Amino acid sequence: MSDQSPPHNPADKPERESVAGLTFRPARDEDTEALVTLWEACGLTRAWNDPRNDIAFARGGASSDVLVGTIEGQVVASVMVGHDGHRGAAYYVAVAPAHQGTGLGRAVMEAAEDWLKARGVWKLNLMVRETNLAAKGFYEGLGFTRSEVVVMQKALA
Ligand SMILES: CC(C)(COP(=O)(O)OP(=O)(O)OC[C@H]1O[C@@H](n2cnc3c(N)ncnc32)[C@H](O)[C@@H]1OP(=O)(O)O)[C@@H](O)C(=O)NCCC(=O)NCCS
Q1: How far apart (Å, rounded) are the C-alpha atoms in residues 130 and 57?
Q2: What's residue 3's pLDDT?
Q3: Which of 53, 87, 122, 155 is deepest in the core (most CB within 10 A)?
Q4: Nearest 5°: phi and psi at 3?
Q5: pLDDT averaged per 10 residues in sequence order, the chain, 157 residues
Q6: What is the pLDDT of residue 14?
Q7: Ligand 1 centroid to 4 CA: how many Å?
Q8: pLDDT at 132
Q9: CA distances (Å), origin 13, targets 8, 20, 26, 107
Q10: pLDDT of residue 15
Q11: In this structure, are strands 88-95 and 124-125 parallel, antiparallel, or unpaired?
Q12: How does DSSP classify residue 7?
């Protein structure tokens, strides 16, 4: 899916501080290598997950996409968004290390929430590794609360 969604520009929201020059749009084919580089730099890739496959799968779905944040044409942030008909989800939340701590992470989550709200989704669930204390602090600062649930999984392929 994707290139049909309008670009999301936090600068359109005068009530919120925006980051100069930051624009969000759906990922394109040519963004794949920049996304993988970004995710590697942010420590988000895992040996058992092929990030290129993850990108292709999310971009190909009717209810999912990958959003990239760019400044002067360079990919500096990302989020994979989607919903399963009930809850929204965000994965691969990433800000390039050189830009972290300058408000891009907040803008990333705003872009994800706007994408989901535009599709009628009313709740966003996140999975954060127990060891990722910085990300937990970041999400708590944005109003996320801890759910008393255990995430279970089963490989299907
Ligand atoms: C987590 C991440 C996306 C945050 O992005 P960022 O650009 O550094 O965050 P921002 O500058 O937009 O910060 C937004 C708010 O969160 C707060 N925040 C950021 N990190 C925090 C932390 N470790 N603890 C508490 N608050 C934190 C900031 O102070 C800021 O608050 P403010 O707007 O009230 O000043 C970024 O650090 C990153 O890419 N990390 C590596 C990848 C990762 O772990 N992703 C999450 C996977 S679940």
Answers
A1: 26
A2: 43
A3: 87
A4: -65, -5
A5: 49 54 98 98 95 98 97 97 97 98 98 98 96 96 96 95
A6: 40
A7: 29
A8: 95
A9: 10, 13, 19, 11
A10: 39
A11: parallel
A12: P
Report how far residue 32's alpha carbon sits from residue 144's, in angstroms, rounded to the nearest whole number: 29
- Going by alpha carbons, the residue nearest to atom 4 of ligand 1 is 105
Give the burial class of 33: count Cβ atoms within 10 A of its Cβ; 0-12 exposed, 13-18 middle, 19 or more buried. exposed
Q: Among 69, 94, 95, 65, which Cα is nearest to 80's?
A: 65
Helix H or strand E segment including 65: strand 64-71
Token output for 78: 């990302």
Q: Which atom of ligand 1 is nearest to the CA of 128?
A: 48
Full set of structural domains in the chain with CATH: 16-141 (3.40.630.30)
Ligand 1: which residue has its CA nearest to atom 14? Answer: 106
Under 8 Å between Cβ of 53 and 66: no
pLDDT at 22: 97
The Cα–Cα gap between 61 and 65 comes to 7
Vertex 127: Cα angle to 89 and 153 (nearest 5) = 95
Q: Residue 114 corresponds to which tokens in the numbers above?
A: 């706007």
Atom of ligand 1 nearest to the CA of 95: 39
DSSP β-bridge partners for residue 135:
none
